[in-house]
Fold:
Amino acid sequence: MTMHDVASAMRRAETVLRRRPDMGLHDDSPATARWQGGLRVVAGHANGVQVQTDMPSELGGTGDQVTPGWLWRAGLASCTATRIAMAAAVEGIQLQTLELRASSRSDTRGMLGMDAVQVGPSDVRLHVRISAAGVSSERLRELVETSYRRSPVTCAIEGAVPVALSIEIAAA
Structure:
């Protein structure tokens, strides 16, 4: 799909949603994770795409797959990159470079229930590298900042969306 096609699709969607705002609310595709033994898990999408995760060998995994935390960072980076590309398409900005790197710092003791340290990342960084011929640095910075604020993954992280946990005990 070309960036012109992306811009056209976004404009059509906006037109429809202005007339029928109720059509904007929808259930997102669920991610289903199935334990494979050891610390290996396979996450699957309804369309058949699967992603394997594992933990580093220091924590009992094989270390040959990405970790769930890496998938979280990848989601942050790819969602924000997608939102930037969408905005650029609508504004007719032809991107030449768009690369995002999400990194974080965590203390494993939290995951292990040791000491009084935070479980999960305590510091997250998102670095954006972007260029577009004939577009000022200020305009590109504004494009990134606006897109960042409209990225669903970013908003879920910064808004600390609550998770409703339900537990089903399966027959052994």
Q: What stands out?
A: The beta strands are 32-37, 40-44, 50-53, 97-106, 121-131. The chain has a mean pLDDT of 94. The domain at 3-18+67-158 is CATH 3.30.300.20 (GMP Synthetase; Chain A, domain 3).
